[in-house]
Backbone:
């Protein structure tokens, strides 16, 4: 492992890797990535692979729009097939409040150039034959949303970054950050120290711990989010289906499996990734209620990962007041995978001072003092 680097990235998830890959593409590769586990150990290897542009805030819509364009090229660019299938996302609203929210979102999405449409329950059944629309008031649908297989996306970015000179150290846990005054001196790990003056905290659900090592407090909290996958079935389900009333979502992967999860209002913040029968039970009941033909399908596996949740549903991006060169790229909740390509690219341009995209001032920690950012309300899980 190198003992000195221009930039150290803590966390080898999709966010840290996307940043490293884009920096290296721009010619800056004196970067060391420190990852405590294997690639895909964190949320980036445990998520549902959903990629949508249906959001309630303009920034999320625009960022995910640009990410979709980048995901469309990623397999070609990296040589790793990410199995991206744009079958759309179908949201179901069951009461007047949710229906009004979808209506408002659709107007905003259309303004930003996303062709989302409101559908009647009957039209939704046309898209998903057998869908139980009893009690559904209205749906929203955008056909260019989709799903991908997260692992090859992570591996592809890692491989490209490595080829361009980035050093990726797996099974290397950061234990502390040594700071002199306001300046970072080195990052300590269980395999030795790396001297640097710039550190990116891309540690997902662990980012609050990394921040504390540098004497900063983040408002992010980790929440367990459980998910499951069925046996593979012949392709029959085109869009990701998501019921806003209980936060159920499921889609069919390119490998044929049904993969999805559900919100749990009783889940408190924790550092647990155990699997529960409660989830299995609630999720299966909800899926069968929505799509009764799934009743005979076998569930193969369930697992869990962290949502790294901020108070307003937006990520934390940019500098902190307390320490120079300590950059935050965390707090992505249940939607960091889909934002990773564009956030990594914009962050690389910002780090290299090629451009100052406003997200790095708008979404830095100071917003919690000024309260200026609009809350993202279309958060699932
Ligand atoms: C079940 C589930 C379903 C999801 N579904 C979706 C979805 O459909 N679409 C979507 O866009 N997003 C989804 N998400 C969210 C998405 O997975 C995350 O937002 C995204 O992967 C975050 O990436 P990251 O790089 O910030 O974090 P991670 O992938 O968690 O990476 C952080 C890394 O930091 C490492 N680390 C932590 N502490 C240390 C340390 N001390 N030393 C060294 N390394 C350390 C961890 O090991 C980890 O690998 C889902 C998440 C879960 C859990």
Residues:
């Amino acid at each position: 492992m190198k003992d000195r680097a221009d930039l150290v990235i803590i966390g080898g998830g999709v966010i840290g890797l996307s940043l490293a890959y884009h920096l290296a593409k721009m010619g800056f590769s004196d970067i060391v990535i420190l990852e405590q586990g294997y690639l895909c150990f964190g949320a980036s290897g445990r998520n549902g692979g959903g990629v949508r542009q249906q959001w309630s805030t303009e920034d999320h819509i625009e960022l995910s729009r640009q990410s979709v364009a980048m995901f469309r090229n990623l397999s070609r660019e990296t040589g790793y097939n990410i199995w991206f299938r744009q079958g759309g996302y179908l949201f179901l609203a069951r009461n007047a409040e949710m229906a009004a929210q979808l209506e408002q979102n659709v107007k905003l999405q259309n303004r930003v150039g996303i062709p989302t449409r409101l559908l009647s329950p009957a039209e939704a059944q046309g898209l998903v034959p057998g869908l139980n629309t009893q009690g559904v008031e209205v749906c929203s649908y955008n056909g260019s949303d989709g799903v991908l297989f997260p692992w090859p996306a992570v591996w592809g970015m890692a491989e490209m970054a490595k080829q361009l000179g980035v050093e990726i150290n797996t099974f290397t846990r950061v234990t502390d950050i040594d700071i002199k005054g306001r300046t970072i001196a080195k990052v300590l790990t269980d395999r030795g120290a790396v001297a640097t003056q710039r550190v990116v905290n891309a540690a997902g659900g662990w980012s609050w711990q990394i921040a504390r090592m540098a004497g900063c407090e983040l408002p992010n909290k980790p929440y367990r989010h459980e998910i499951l996958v069925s046996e593979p079935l012949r392709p029959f389900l085109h869009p990701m289906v998501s019921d806003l009333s209980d936060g159920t979502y499921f889609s069919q992967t390119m490998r044929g499996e049904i993969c999805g999860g559900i919100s749990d209002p009783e889940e408190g913040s924790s550092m647990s990734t155990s699997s529960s029968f409660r989830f299995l039970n609630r999720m299966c009941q909800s899926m069968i209620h929505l799509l009764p033909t799934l009743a005979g399908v076998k569930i193969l596996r369930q697992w869990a990962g962290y949502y790294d949740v901020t108070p307003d549903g937006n990520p934390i991006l940019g500098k902190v007041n307390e320490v120079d060169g300590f950059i935050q790229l965390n707090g992505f909740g249940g939607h960091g995978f889909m934002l990773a390509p564009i956030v990594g690219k914009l962050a690389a341009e910002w780090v290299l001072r090629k451009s100052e995209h406003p997200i790095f001032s708008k979404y830095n920690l100071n917003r919690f003092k000024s309260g200026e950012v609009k809350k993202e309300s279309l958060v699932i899980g």
